[in-house]
Amino acid sequence: MMQQSFSNSYLFGGNAPYVEELYEAYLNNPGSVPDNWRAYFDAMQNVPAVDGSNKPDVAHAPVIASFAERAKQGPIRTVTASMDAEMGRKRVAVTQLIAAYRFLGNRWANLDPLQRQERPNIPELEPSFYGFTDADQDIVFNISNTYFGPETATLRDLLQSLRDTYCRSIGAEFMYVSDPAQKRWLQERLESVRSTPNFSPEKKKHILDRLTAAEGLERYLHTRYVGQKRFSLEGGESFIASLDETIQRAGDKGVQEIVIGMAHRGRLNVLVNTLGKMPQDLFAEFEGKHADDLPAGDVKYHQGFSSDVSTPGGPVHLSLAFNPSHLEIVNPVVEGSVKARMDRRGDKDGSQVMPILVHGDAAFAGQGVVMETLNLAQTRGYGTGGTVHIVINNQIGFTTSDPRDSRSTLYCSDVVKMIEAPVLHVNGDDPEAVILATQIALDFRLEFKKDVVVDIICFRKLGHNEQDTPALTQPLMYKKIGKHPGTRKLYADKLVTQGTIGADDGDAMVKAYRDAMDAGKHTVDPVISNFKSKYAVDWMPFLNRKWTDAADTAVPLAELKRLAARITTVPENFKVHPLVEKVLADRATMGQGDMNLDWGMGEHLAYASLVASGYAVRLTGQDAGRGTFVHRHAVLHDQNRERWDAGTFIPLQNISENQASFSVIDSVLSEEAVLGFEYGYSTAEPNTLTIWEAQFGDFANGAQVVIDQFISSGEVKWGRASGLVMMLPHGYEGQGPEHSSARLERYLQLCADNNMQVVQPTTAAQIFHLLRRQMIRLFRKPLVIMTPKSLLRNKDAGSPLSELAKGQFQTVIGEVDEKIDPKKVKRVVACSGKVYYDLVNARKERGASDIAIVRIEQLYPFPHKAFAAELKKFPNFTELVWTQDEPQNQGAWFQIQHNIFENLEEGQKLAYAGRPASASPAVGYYDKHYAQQKALIDTAFSKLKGFVLTK
After folding, report:
1. What does the record give as EC number (predicted)?
2. Among the four residues 79, 301, 621, 773, which has the most C-beta atoms within 10 Å?
């Protein structure tokens, strides 16, 4: 609790009129004043008159003079005890009143431009709640250590200051912040100016210019392209002024890159009026023209853009992220892009790179990815130094819903309280207040490297899109909106009244903007056309390249042995767990070529060889450090120390002196936000192997929007390349419905246009070559790996060190058993994944020497040439059986059968062996799992039956 000091000023000064009234009342009727004051005035009867006589003087001036003298000398002891107690209570009450306005003042703030809500009854904001009466209004209190303003103030003035600060156009929420320094900083910024802007005439004109641009674009499009969807910003024009202020002020304070994420509301306005997209380019999109180099493309209000703009601190690079209609899903993508840019610059705290996220009120409150993304904010692997959130709060949500149906919280922004981010609610019809709130929010982010929210409460003039009629469901609201003159008009009239602009200047600005639109000119001045930062990444070497499976991924044997020694060496006095000690010892043996490599060692050598060659690696997931199945052990823990920073050692960070970075992060328990983050990272950094590993493969279900809207389709919609790797543990080992399938079929269904790769490697050498291929080839495509579980320790899946020193990733692995005579083969069993080893064992048990087994390691793009070459080795086979662990309606069967069938010759037959179709990915009973597994293996070796295709 802050300490507070008060003087005896209640005896004189500003309280004199009150004391005089009390004294008058006492003279008329001593019983009409409080006991403590009556006792005091009784004592005053003994005060000598000014003229020196003994007769009490009832004139006021001598009485006040006496009060002043008494104040200097100290009150009579028997009287001041009760008076000091009462004043002590009032001092405490003043402190409580100040706190109440800091906590609750936002509830009385004038935030709604439509004035539809009645002010709630909040007794704590009334002086009477604390026992104050009208008679107390002129008592002077010393508030120097409690409130940021003058040292002393009457209760009347203090109350006015509190209401100006917290109850006018800005409603602040921040008292839940636990850091006292942050609270005091916000209190000072708000209270020292009473939340009242004091801008220069030039600043005011600039604000009007931005409002004119925001309104001008919408009205121009409305008349030129009648009825076309654009998700208008009309009613929320102050947002453009806010965004402009954020960018310009950030640039002035040293920020050099800003990544913006937003949904479609107002997006066209941002493209033209903030980023400087040429209006004629936007008009071309309205008129149906499109980019010929994109196979699919996207609607105009999902498009991204980048540009460089001038600020007082120098050029700032702006990137507006591409975003689908899943609104808030762009949030983690933006954060990941920012993190990549920070890492590239060596920007540890976000001083140079900053994210801005723009939200709609209903989506901000309603979509879970918002919470997931917020939860990343202060973590080490995902923190970006704080995000500036701007809410375009049109009070009606996504269509024409009642706010009572949009959320269960008081404010749409209440979710940010989970990370103690302050919120500044502001009336969109007060543009100067919007700018002041924006300045405070940005400065807070830069000072404390924390998230902050500006909630611009406005309205939506038109429907959700321009073809809607919202008055059907919100008649009274839209009657008010119909009468609203517009924020620009209100502000222009205000500036005319102030004398800041002339009577015709506002209309002249409107005409000038329209003329610029007609001419197709830039509306942002100045956009820098020839600036290129030294931190910019050149994606050109990776774009427009023909697909190839080939890549020289072999590493010389001597280098492999050196790398193996580095990743199995720990510092002196570092005590690893006995189980890990055994793993490291085995890996050292593997690294000398004396033991076949297991999966973990193959993976480690891939990472080690990449970082040694200058490719950075970023590996994240809920158990990324050790691996969900305890196979990786990338992070070693000293058994004698528990502190994370002092008690861990990461061998892959100690490969060579000038190596690239290796980062392994145990993520928060999130799929959607973390996968979105890693996708965003990969789109901004082509030279980093960016990997997200699911704890179990089907946990990626929780991130399906990221997979559908970004990973699989981002390149064909937006030309946005990504080399993101998804590792999804997959395999049927009797662990039930949620821990068996990574939903392979879903990824294959999304495959087209060579958009991504889906693979299921089965040996340690394969994962080594696959991970290296992802970086060495000069193109970037998402890679989905169905990683194994039981194969992690299956000795049959091991590889000799020599296989890493030669060859490359094999998209198809043909028959490897030398005892199989190709000419005697009557049936080829094709498969992918763990089931291969089950088939090999079954063939051995049956002595089925006339059956060959071929593994398809890359399921998409389908390796037609490699697969056909393997089939040609068996000139006499007539049957091909596709065998899989998954149910028939899942797995690869329905997506791969046409590719297999295409490679058969006339008369050859194609059949299926696997589990029957099922609504669930796997059974939960182990005995039933075992029976199904036995049955599908038997089917693979039995006479063809059921569904058979003949070429």
Report:
1. 1.2.4.2
2. 621
